[in-house]
Write a structure and sequence with these properties.
- The complex is a heterodimer of chains A (449) and B (472).
- Chain A is an alpha/beta fold.
- Chain A has 14 helices and 15 strands.
- Chain B is 32% helix and 20% strand.
- Chain B is built from 14 helices and 20 strands.
- In chain B, the strands form 5 sheets. Chain B has a 7-stranded mixed sheet with strand order 15-16-17-14-13-18-19, with helices on both faces.
- In chain B, α3 runs antiparallel to α7 and α11 packs across α12.
- The chains are: A alpha/beta (449), B alpha/beta (472).
- Chains A and B meet through α3, β1, α6 and β12 of A and α10 and α13 of B.
Chain lengths: 449, 472
């Protein structure tokens, strides 16, 4: 890590890190982006290619960086057949085009599935997290050991800043989400437990088998076989039976979680999960006749991710908060994505997500190929970020999100740029008015979503 | 919020005013504001009066007593007036479609100029004859007697139809209007947001010929946002309609499926993809390669590869040197202006760029000709690429034998363009078994033989209400 990058990333433990106005950071951020670019432009093949095509040799302005930001889809650009046909060497070669570090050689002859492949790479210091694409391809995000260490630090700071909860190791930890068992999620869960968890209690985890990348990709692989017409009815029946069994086991686990929460209601709790799971558990707790009056008045909650297209009643957040007696000032939300390594916590007074000094926000046009002119105030556009803290892959990524970024100070007093709590995915804005004669065989695959 | 800076306030754009046509009458107004799906152009429509739109079953269909021959006369007359150089409605809608549709203006113009070709007596009658063994059923009760000597009479009674027009093919409404008229149907055309204009332009042209003509009285064309429950939940009922005809696939169809019930059926022309197959004869000389590359380019670039019949994957069997020369020439020929293709087309979606870049960076996976500049790219691989080539991207797949390519044909495959001729005959049965619907000469994907089936069926027969009078 160079001096310019370090100057900004070392602010991670600074309690005043969100107090720095954007104008004070601009020059330092450009210098730091250039430093990252110079050290990596020969090492990341895809970056070298992009730099050559765009004719960029140096970052002197934010505009210079725009053609070098990777769309989030770059991490899905591997051919699916590498997975479905278990071509591990070629998948490794693909990783090599996006990695700043040479991919260590591993034995692939005896690998039985993607989980083993990921495990073997992890033992060599390459950490792969997959996004859980529900029907489509999963993004494969490569990270390094340094990234895991950073996540560990950053996540505690982000939660503490956003929720006002001090890392005093005085809370009973409850994880009630079926979260994918990928290195980043595991690291964050461990770090949160170590910082906030009361060591007298074993953290509660939803009693379901871990969701691995192999399970996430199984559906993708079967979908492809169905589209090609090569899947046999037996394959589909087996998959459906497994899905049904998993759903039932999840429902049982939710009931167990509800019982455990009720039993622990007198303790000070730290509850984490995704909105859908939290809502389901809260409903079970209410059905058993328990609610706000029964729970500790200083409980806190960590919610990861958005709704993920779950259909919940409009007051789902309030319902969850009221059930577990979460005080208003403990309402924590974080804006981040698998593609980034750092979080952006939401403040209590302004209700906005704050961008830390080592994260350079870009507002692009909808197509993601041009920077919007934005010198002051709030403006809406496609979100892109350059996370200076990232070590194991290229720092710049263009998201699928539409955000409103404000460069002026927030109502809460923080002077950092901040993002309004109305983030949507461009993909969800497309609407359902499309009709056309051209299409793919995907439209002919039923029942795998 | 900094609305004071003016950064949040969207520039006030002038919205295009869309007109509706309801059972013979033009309806204007700007009660509802919409944004077009593809290009985000704002337009307004009148409010839809559902009571006015839906003809009650107590009324006989306006066309019931009109002879098929008279209907065809009226359509032919309409065709004569759909001359872009003289028809102000078409001229106006061409400008609007050019603003809302992703196809370039010049191609939209070509489509407008071609569409009337369907409105000739020969073309209209060919489609009717291909669909129906005895056209007298449309004008009278046709008597027949079964093997036991029992007599009966049959009538092709007018159906009530909703036509969901495709968004990627402006002016295709013309054939839908003609079909609806010849079936004597009561018709509602649900226009797409990428062209909420041309259908009304055609209907206004008809109304100028004779505003009281039963064809005119049996037609309505409106826009509502697909998925608008207030409208769809109300009117998608068998009491109001027999069939919903969907000219394509996509989210708009997923909405409709929810409303299907006994008596209300969906006739969908499914979303399709097309391919080419080229045998070793093509690669025997530079002259042959050039000729085949031109034919292949014609099929790949049609509608700038937005249409179902545009070829996307080209399986080739032949010597590697010849195949690479073919790829190079194909890429060159993809970069020329054609009646239905632009030399420089809109760029493919960004995620394709990621996948193609990656194939280039991973040595040994693919050879790539062309750049990401709208002039077309050719990607030579040993297996089909896993993304959907679109925006003038051709994936040439080198196979040992063309027979090896059949496993890549599936239920979504529509047109297979084949070179040489004899190979068409050799492969056609196996292609059909795998799911394909049409084998054509390479270079002729967008040409049609009159009276051919559409989407592997004769759709018009499935639209009429076959009424039987039996004397058993």
């Amino acid at each position: 890590m160079g001096a310019c990058v370090e100057r900004l990333t070392k602010l991670v433990d600074d309690p005043e890190r969100f107090a720095i106005p954007y104008t004070d950071l601009r020059a330092a951020q450009i210098a730091a982006m250039n430093e990252r670019f110079q050290e990596r432009k020969q090492r990341i093949k895809l970056l070298a290619h992009r730099a050559r095509e765009a004719g960029v040799g140096e970052i002197r302005s934010r505009e210079d960086m725009v053609p070098l930001l990777f769309p989030h889809t770059a991490y899905k650009s591997y051919p699916e057949s590498f997975l479905s046909e278990q071509k591990w060497d070629r998948l490794g070669k693909w990783l090599g085009t996006i990695s700043p570090y040479p991919i260590a050689p591993i034995e692939t002859g005896d690998i039985g599935g993607i989980d083993e492949w990921i495990g073997r790479l992890e033992s060599k210091g390459h950490y792969i997290s997959c996004s859980s694409g529900t029907t489509g391809k999963s993004a494969m995000l490569l990270a390094s050991g340094a990234d895991m260490q950073w996540s560990r630090r950053d996540t505690v700071g982000v939660f503490s800043w956003g929720s006002g909860v001090q890392p005093a190791r005085d809370r009973r930890m409850f994880g009630v989400a079926p979260i994918a068992h990928v290195p980043k999620n595991v690291t964050i869960a461990e770090a949160q437990a170590a910082a906030f968890g009361d060591p007298r209690f074993v953290p509660f985890r939803l009693p379901v088998p871990p969701i691995t990348v192999g399970q996430l990709t199984k559906m993708v692989v079967l979908r492809k076989a169905m589209a090609e017409g090569s899947a046999r009815p037996g394959d589909i029946a087996e998959f459906e039976a497994t899905s049904k069994a998993r759903q039932e086991s999840l429902e049982n686990a939710m009931a167990i979680a509800a019982e455990a929460l009720i039993a622990a209601r007198a303790d000070k709790l730290y509850i984490s999960g995704l909105w859908n799971a939290l809502y389901q558990v809260a409903k079970l707790v209410r059905e058993k006749g328990f609610g706000a009056k029964d729970f500790h008045p200083d409980n806190c909650i960590y919610v990861g991710g958005g709704l993920k297209r779950a259909l919940l009643p409009p007051d789902y957040q309030q319902f969850v908060h009221e059930t577990f007696n979460i005080p208003a000032e403990r309402n924590f939300q974080n804006y981040s994505m698998q593609e980034l390594n750092s979080g952006m916590p939401r403040c209590q007074q302004g209700g906005r997500y704050h961008v830390p000094p080592w994260m350079v926000p870009f507002l692009l046009n909808k197509q993601g190929d041009a920077l919007l002119p934005h010198a002051a105030g709030e403006l809406e556009g496609r979100a892109a970020f350059f996370d200076l803290a990232l070590d194991g892959r290229w720092n710049g990524v263009i998201s699928g999100d539409k955000i409103s970024l404000d460069l002026s100070a927030c109502k809460c007093g923080a002077k950092s740029p901040s993002i309004r709590d109305n983030i949507v995915r461009y993909a969800d804005l497309e609407g359902d008015d499309k009709i056309g004669c051209a299409g793919t065989v995907d439209a002919y695959v039923r029942g795998l979503s | 919020m900094s609305a004071a800076d003016g950064v949040l306030a969207p520039a006030t754009r002038q919205a295009i005013r869309v007109k509706h046509f309801v059972r013979g009458a033009l309806v204007t107004g700007d009660a509802v504001r919409h944004t077009s799906r593809d290009l985000g152009v704002d337009f307004t429509t009148p409010a839809i009066d559902l009571d006015a739109l839906i003809a009650p079953r107590s009324e006989m269909p306006p066309l019931f007593d009109t002879k098929l021959a008279d209907i065809v006369d009226f359509l032919v007359e309409t065709g004569a007036r759909l001359d872009l150089d003289r028809n102000p409605y078409l001229q106006e809608s061409l400008e609007f479609v050019a603003a809302t549709n992703p196809l370039p203006r010049r191609i939209v113009e070509s489509l407008f100029r071609r569409a009337r070709q369907f409105l000739t007596r020969d073309a209209l009658m060919a489609s009717m004859h291909a669909n129906f063994p005895d056209l007298r059923c449309f004008d009278e009760w046709v008597e027949r007697t079964d093997a036991h000597g029992q007599s009966a009479a049959l009538r092709a009674f007018p159906p009530r139809l909703i036509h969901m027009l495709a968004g990627n093919s402006p002016a295709s409404c013309i054939s839908s209007i003609a079909q609806g008229a010849m079936l004597k149907a009561v018709n509602v055309f649900k226009m797409p947001s990428s062209d909420p204009f041309s259908c009304v332009a055609v209907l206004r042209t008809m109304a100028d010929i004779d505003s009281g003509h039963p064809v005119v009285k049996s037609m309505s064309a409106v826009y509502w946002r697909g998925g608008d429950e207030r409208i769809e939940r109300t009117i998608y009922r068998p009491q109001y309609f027999n069939r919903i005809i969907a000219w394509g696939g996509g989210s708009a169809i997923d909405n409709v499926i929810r409303y299907l019930s006994p008596g209300l059926q969906l006739l969908s022309f499914d979303p399709k993809t097309s391919i080419s197959m080229i045998g070793p004869e093509a690669f025997q000389s530079s002259a042959a390669i050039a000729q085949v590359a031109e034919a292949a380019a014609e099929d790949v670039t049609t509608f700038n590869q937005e249409a179902c019949l545009a070829s996307r994957i080209l399986f080739v069997e032949g010597a590697p040197g010849g195949v690479e020369e073919f790829c190079e020439k194909l890429q060159q020929r993809m970069g020329v202006d054609r009646p239905l293709a632009s030399a420089v087309a809109p760029l493919p979606p960004a995620e394709l760029r990621e996948e193609i870049d990656m194939l280039k960076l991973m040595e040994g996976e693919a050879k790539v000709w062309g750049k990401f500049d709208g002039r077309g790219m050719v990607i030579l691989t040993g297996e089909p690429v896993e993304f959907h080539p679109t925006g003038k991207i051709a994936n040439v797949v080198h196979v040992r034998k063309l027979e090896d390519a059949i496993r890549h044909v599936n239920v979504a495959t529509q047109t297979v363009g084949i070179y040489p001729e004899a190979t068409k005959v050799r492969l056609r049965d196996r292609l059909a078994n795998a799911g394909a619907q049409r084998v054509v000469r390479l270079g002729s994907a967008s040409k049609h033989v009159g009276g051919a089936p559409h989407d592997a069926m004769f759709p018009l027969q499935r639209l009429v209400h076959w009424m039987s009078q039996e004397n058993a």
